[in-house]
UniProtKB/TrEMBL annotation:
Keywords: Hydrolase, One-carbon metabolism, Purine biosynthesis. It comes from Catalinimonas alkaloidigena. It is an enzyme of class 3 (hydrolase). This is Formyltetrahydrofolate deformylase. GO terms for molecular function: formyltetrahydrofolate deformylase activity. CDD domains: ACT_F4HF-DF, FMT_core_Formyl-FH4-Hydrolase_C. Pathway: Purine metabolism; IMP biosynthesis via de novo pathway; formate from 10-formyl-5,6,7,8-tetrahydrofolate: step 1/1.
Amino acid sequence: MTHLLHIDCPDEPGLVFRITQVLFEHGFNIISNQEFVDQSTQYFFMRTAFAGDRPPQVVVDQLRQRLSPATTVRLATAGKRPIVLMATKESHCLGDLLLRHADGELNADIQAVISNHAVLEPLVNRFDIPFHHVPATHDRAAHERGVLALLEQYRPDYLVLAKYMRILSPEFVARYPFRILNIHHSFLPAFVGARPYHQAFERGVKIIGATAHAVTNDLDTGPIIAQDVLPVTHTHTAASMAQAGRDIEKLVLARALKLLLEERVFFHHNRTVVFE
């Protein structure tokens, strides 16, 4: 079985040697290793895939003893991760993820789809995945209690907002820190908030894009995981920009989710280190 080791800490000499020495001492084989030092903060990040017959927790215990108290050590097992998708009315991102899941492209097990509208239920039913309609009301707290009650049943590793067009409360976000993935139909930090294609059209931009980011308490400003762009011209209207943007939105969301599922993303302050 392959295990994934995440380590981040203030940089110091000899870290790679000391970490890999622990793996060697306990008979583990390193399959791949990536490391990076952020020169602006002198902070060290390392992702290591390793395999062996012994329980991997011994590595974590040893590293916590040998490395500084400021070190974060996290262990994951390579394999399918439980996720829940959340959507509203738009089908392109949700449909793309459902297709990828059906084709075995996602290293995930989609446990359910939760939506504040019933529009997408026929689509989800085609894939034999549970669909839950939690109606949107003016009482956001009541709506979120209904969603959280469902999530307690499924206990997902990640929530994926596949065009879930509601702002989540700080209390909700705190339940899943850096575990809620959102797709924003703009190349952030430009055109934050609602109607970004209309904003882009009014500004006369020559490229439009999409941004997948972790959800935080501040609207559309969470750490960015993946982005991409495509060119547009003066002939595009706001509507045709939105239509063109749907393709890039679903590709960026799928790529960001893949990176998360493969444990390739480190969150550091409001930035990310992504080992591709």
